[in-house]
Amino acid sequence: MSSMGISRNRKGPDKIPRHRGLFLSLFLLIILVLMVNFYFAFVMNSDSNKLLSQTEPSKIFYAQSKVFSSTIRNVILLDSPVKENYNSVGNIIRNASSDFSFKIETLVKKISFKYSKLSPFLHNEISKLWTYLQPSVGTSTQLWSVAKEWVGARNIVPAQAPLLGSVLKTMSFAKIVKAQNAPGGTQLKLLITFEGGQQALFKPQWYKRDEVIEGPVYSGKDRHNAEVAAFHLALLLGLRRVPITAARKINLHTEIMPVASKSLLKTFTVDGKNNTCFYGTCHYCSRSDAVCGNKVWLEGAVILMLPSNFKLKHFRSPWQRTYKENKAAKWEIESNYCESVKSNKIYNPQSGPRLLDLIDAAIFDFLIDNGDRHHYEVRGNVSGAAVLFIDNGKSFGHPFQDHLDILAPLYQCCVLRKTTWERLLLFAGGTLGAALEKLLTTSSITPVLTSFHLTAVNRRLRAIYATAEFCFQKYGIAHVLTDDGYR
Ligand SMILES: Nc1ncnc2c1ncn2[C@@H]1O[C@H](COP(=O)(O)OP(=O)(O)OP(=O)(O)O)[C@@H](O)[C@H]1O
Ligand SMILES: [Mn+2]
């Protein structure tokens, strides 16, 4: 037996090496293909942290997303004539949004490779912003005038802002000399005055970080962490139109009650667990729905008020929702809705930056999942003033849902500011979530967002790329990307 075996082996050298060589090459080829596959799967799907080496690597979660399930699908084409349709259970079909979600689903898959390459400029940009967010000088009320001088017609924070971290730190620690109910709006918030006279809104914490807000996109109360996250995301996107927002833990007994107005103080209570609470006065405020601290400590977002000479002009958004399940807005059913928007002089692209500003806002809102921008504000009496992103409280409510209809201004008008698009490309390859995570490590209430929300931001950016691709394919890239001289 053994001799047979040996003889077989001995015969081998003539024949077997050829087979072996063939097998070996085949094996190596398979390994190579697998490695390439793994590499691309990793680059395209992961929140790449390689460029963000100064932060802790973010945990990657691939949560099952209900991306396109929140809108009702149907088969009517986007260009169909205007008519209200009802589905079999009598709900209104919102054609303009549901048709689009159907198209975009396929596009997201098709374009993933095209937008998978990491930008060589990313690391520098993030490092710069991260440095700005570090307090470089001590807290000082003199910084109020610095922040005041920053405010321009197009930006609330300038591109170069090395004192930003110091301003934020001062907002988190400066002495509060007065606390009142904040006027305006429907949500409970305080108007606080710091030493030095600077005012800010204080939006309190209602939810734990991992609470998922179910229901329509505008459901729930304001999320204080969403305001903080939105401010940082706007810095990353170069859309510095969000009022400066810091996190703060307030001692209600020592910092608010002694300086509270009489009417506010009247609404303070203590709950069964000895936590201090207050309910204030606002549209949705009631004694039975007070906000409570952890004993005396209440976390919240401090939003710096714009300078008082900065008069705000208030506009209804053309893409406002009806806030009624059984009533659709015009934009939800009219396929050529953008044309009617542009027929209004202020939205005509030839007459100013407003339409492109609203499209910037739509992109920003889609990323943060804010479907509640019913009104918007711009600085009055200044030409070319930017649409400000005031009130981001209803964002980051549901990390597993994306409301594609927030992007309606983009897919209905198919125009996009070139500088905005270039900035979005900075985060190709799934890096936006990790970049945001890094900036948010500078906040005093980390973690500001759960990793599910950070993953959602990457997923939503892919949908934005796909939406832009839809427009490029329909009208040509040169028609879509616009340089209107504003940014
Ligand atoms: N940082 C700021 N600087 C100046 N004005 C501000 C600022 N933040 C908010 N405001 C003003 O206060 C109003 C109410 O604020 P905000 O929208 O945050 O409250 P809200 O209760 O969520 O409102 P709504 O119920 O309308 O959504 C804004 O429309 C704006 O006019
Ligand atoms: Mn609001």
UniProtKB/TrEMBL annotation:
<feature type="active site">
    <location>
        <position position="372"/>
    </location>
</feature>
<keyword id="KW-0479">Metal-binding</keyword>
<feature type="domain" description="FAM20 C-terminal">
    <location>
        <begin position="268"/>
        <end position="479"/>
    </location>
</feature>
<feature type="binding site">
    <location>
        <position position="377"/>
    </location>
    <ligand>
        <name>ATP</name>
    </ligand>
</feature>
<feature type="binding site">
    <location>
        <position position="391"/>
    </location>
    <ligand>
        <name>ATP</name>
    </ligand>
</feature>
<keyword id="KW-0812">Transmembrane</keyword>
<feature type="binding site">
    <location>
        <position position="222"/>
    </location>
    <ligand>
        <name>Mn(2+)</name>
    </ligand>
</feature>
<dbReference type="InterPro" id="IPR024869">
    <property type="entry name" value="FAM20"/>
</dbReference>
<keyword id="KW-0472">Membrane</keyword>
<dbReference type="GO" id="GO:0016773">
    <property type="term" value="F:phosphotransferase activity, alcohol group as acceptor"/>
</dbReference>
<dbReference type="InterPro" id="IPR009581">
    <property type="entry name" value="FAM20_C"/>
</dbReference>
<feature type="binding site">
    <location>
        <position position="391"/>
    </location>
    <ligand>
        <name>Mn(2+)</name>
    </ligand>
</feature>
<keyword id="KW-0547">Nucleotide-binding</keyword>
<dbReference type="Pfam" id="PF06702">
    <property type="entry name" value="Fam20C"/>
</dbReference>
<dbReference type="GO" id="GO:0046872">
    <property type="term" value="F:metal ion binding"/>
</dbReference>
<dbReference type="GO" id="GO:0005794">
    <property type="term" value="C:Golgi apparatus"/>
</dbReference>
<comment type="similarity">
    <text>Belongs to the FAM20 family.</text>
</comment>
<feature type="binding site">
    <location>
        <position position="187"/>
    </location>
    <ligand>
        <name>ATP</name>
    </ligand>
</feature>
<keyword id="KW-1133">Transmembrane helix</keyword>
<keyword id="KW-0464">Manganese</keyword>
<feature type="transmembrane region" description="Helical">
    <location>
        <begin position="21"/>
        <end position="42"/>
    </location>
</feature>
<feature type="binding site">
    <location>
        <position position="203"/>
    </location>
    <ligand>
        <name>ATP</name>
    </ligand>
</feature>
<dbReference type="GO" id="GO:0005524">
    <property type="term" value="F:ATP binding"/>
</dbReference>
<feature type="binding site">
    <location>
        <begin position="303"/>
        <end position="306"/>
    </location>
    <ligand>
        <name>ATP</name>
    </ligand>
</feature>
<keyword id="KW-0067">ATP-binding</keyword>
<keyword id="KW-1015">Disulfide bond</keyword>
<keyword id="KW-0333">Golgi apparatus</keyword>
<protein>
    <submittedName>
        <fullName>Glycosaminoglycan xylosylkinase</fullName>
    </submittedName>
</protein>
<keyword id="KW-0325">Glycoprotein</keyword>
